[in-house]
Structures are given as C-alpha cells and as structure tokens.
Design goal:
The chain contains 8 helices and 14 strands. The protein has a 7-stranded mixed β-sheet, with helices on both faces. A 3-stranded mixed β-sheet has the order 7-12-11. The protein has a two-stranded antiparallel ribbon with strand order 1-2. Strand 1 and strand 2 form a beta hairpin. Keywords: Glycosyltransferase, Membrane, Transferase, Transmembrane, Transmembrane helix. It is found in: Membrane.
C-alpha cells in the first residue's frame, strides 16, 4: 500500500474517523468528497485509501486541447486581524503589479481562500472564496493544517478559468510581474527551502512515500508556497495533501520531526506521489533581512523579524532600536507611515517597509 509499518494502521483508523467527521461538517454547506469529478464513489481496491492515489504511480493529464499559460493566484487565510491586514497589502500590490505588466502578462485572477467558514467585511475589497475550517480542535493549534482542505474545497467548487495556480501566502508582496515559471502541468515551479530536507528524514517519510515509489530525493525541498502548478495536477494533489497532513499531525514521530513545517513536507510528499516534479527557482522570492537585495526577485516574503541598531547594523535575534516584525501587529494592523529604517539598513528591508507604507496609504479605511 505504500504506507507500511505497524505504526501506520492505528493512525489510519484515527484518520478515517477524522475525515468522516470533517466531511459531515462540510456537507452542511457544500458536499466535500475526497475524490474529484470522474472518480467512482464505489469501492475500488486499486485506490490507496489514505493518499487517494492509484496504486502503481502518478497520473497523466490529457493534452489534446491547447492550454493557455495564465495562472490564478490563490492565498489561504483565516479571518484574524493578523492574516487580514497582510492579505489587504498583498492584494493591493497584486493589482498594481498586474496592471503594470501589460497585455502579455500571464498573471490571471486572484482569490483569497478564507477558511473561517463565514464571510467577513472584506469580501468586496478582495475576491474571496469562503471555505469551511477543520472541526474544532482537529488542527491541534496548528492553524495552517486548514490550508490543504481549503484548497480542496476551492478547487472543487470554484469556477477557475486559468489552467495554472500560483499558491501564495498573506505575507508575500509581489515586486514585479511574475511569468508562468512552470514548465508544464506536470513540472511545476517552486522555491527551495533550505530547511526542507527529505534525505535527513527519510525514515519518517518512508511511511508516506514507500521505497517502491523511488528514491526519497524524488521529494522536492519545497512547501506549497510559492508554487506554480497545473490546475488539473493540483486537483489530484490537494486531497492527498490534506490526508497526508492530517496523518502526519497524528503521527507523533512525524509531528516531532517536522514541527511547524509539517504541512510543507506533506505537500512535497503529495506532489511526488502524483508524479509532479518542480523546477526549483531560488529567484522566486527573497526573505529579508537575510536576503539583502531585491534584485530580479518576484516576491518579498516577510516572515522574519527585521531588527537593526540606529547605525543600520542587524542585531541578530536581539530586538533592535529599529524593527519591523509582522508579529508586532497580530491584534491590530500596522499604522500608516511606518518609520523608515535608519541609514545603512539593507535595501530589501527598505523596499519592504516602503511598499507596506504605500499600500496602507492607499487602501481605504485602513486601521478602521
């Protein structure tokens, strides 16, 4: 079955119960099936019940029709103040950069996938799809565990015109027009993360990616974001991603090994299970303050705190005399006109704060 080991069977039983509970709750609003259109609802022994993948390999996508290269940008978010202000800034820059790109741009539409289960006050400002969250307590405080299921619902229920999807995050700012970096529907484009190390955790990953499927190096060192992938491919990957994420979270060994990047490992595994590889693009994004220049990058990812003294020197983990850290604004959005960094601070940080200031200055009712 590709997920051997005595530890896995009790996990499978627990997971099955969890998924049944999840589907019952979702069906109160819109039915959510683990399979996609075309999949028989009858029992099929050729289907792996955990990863939703036909035994024996990946899948083939029909190529009889000419496909366009437009991609749809999608970002998952909760309705927290913290996620919301980041989404508003992100969408401001998405619109501005797309408008500057001209008629040949491959940037298509945008959707915030809101996994709070109900609309919020920004539905008219940001194109939004409302997804149902996991049942209370199932995420065990790991909120991003809602992401895979939210994508499953969106992909099944939304009318997505584009043939490719860019999975992004609230704390991404698009700096310049992004081309479709994916080679084709089965070869996506992704940013490589140094801390995603499949070889290091081979023993754990073999529970989900068996030796019969190939070397563990088939699992790319990526998360789900930023990734550009074919829409049809993602429709196949997403249910597996959801199931593997839940299984890993319930597996003490996997949960301990992967910690806060567990859902990233789950996506990398699921992509490999479905035969979707990724071209790794280090220039996809930068992460200040460690990346000091914007250069030719497409996205600024402001996941790390930026702390400097007044001489422009990075203080390395110590709260600086000048700082910008998104976590400082978890209960209220940052004010307009943030203080700019002192002289000597790296250009990437200066650009980040300048872009946030421009967005907040132009977004209506900021901070209200």
């Amino acid at each position: 079955m590709g997920c051997g080991g005595t530890l896995f069977y009790p996990l499978l039983i627990t997971l099955s119960v969890a998924l049944i509970t999840y589907n019952i709750i979702i069906s109160a609003n819109a039915p959510l099936k683990q399979g996609f259109p075309g999949r028989s609802s009858s029992s099929d022994d050729s289907i792996d019940p955990v990863i939703e993948l036909p035994r024996g390999g990946g899948f083939r996508i029909r190529t009889d029709a000419k496909k366009t290269r437009l991609f749809h940008t999608a970002v998952t978010a909760s309705d927290s103040v913290y996620n919301t202000w980041q989404c508003r800034v992100m969408y401001y820059w998405f619109k501005k950069v797309k408008a500057s790109a001209g008629p040949g741009s491959e940037m298509g539409g945008f959707t915030r996938i809101l996994h709070s289960g109900k609309p919020d006050q920004y539905m008219d400002e940001i194109p939004t799809f409302v997804a149902q969250p996991l049942p209370a307590g199932m995420d065990q405080g790991y909120v991003v565990l809602n992401r895979p299921g939210a994508f499953v619902q969106w992909l099944q229920q939304a009318d997505i015109k584009e043939d490719y999807i860019l999975m992004s995050e609230p704390d991404h700012i698009i700096v310049k027009p992004i081309p479709n970096l994916a080679k084709d529907e089965l070869v996506g484009a992704a940013f490589p993360f140094f801390y995603i190390e499949p070889k290091k955790y081979e023993k754990v990953l073999r529970k989900y990616y068996s030796e019969e499927r190939g070397p563990v190096t088939n699992i790319d060192p990526i998360g789900n974001s930023p990734v550009i992938v074919g829409k049809d491919a993602l429709k196949r990957i997403a249910p597996t991603w959801m199931n593997v994420s839940l299984a890993m979270k319930k597996d003490p060994e996997a949960d301990k090994a992967f910690g806060w990047v567990l859902e990233m490992y789950a996506y990398a595994v699921s992509s490999a299970l479905h035969g979707v590889s990724n071209t790794l693009h280090k220039d996809f994004m930068i992460q200040p303050p460690w990346d000091t220049e914007v250069g030719d990058k497409y996205i600024i990812h402001y996941t790390y705190g930026c702390d400097f003294d007044m001489k422009g020197k990075l203080t390395h983990g110590k709260i600086g005399e000048w700082r910008f850290d998104k976590r400082s604004y978890d209960r209220s959005p940052p004010p307009r006109n943030l203080t700019m960094p002192p002289p000597g601070v790296s250009p990437s940080v200066v650009t980040l704060v300048s872009m946030i200031n421009e967005a907040t200055a132009n977004i209506p009712n900021w901070g209200s």
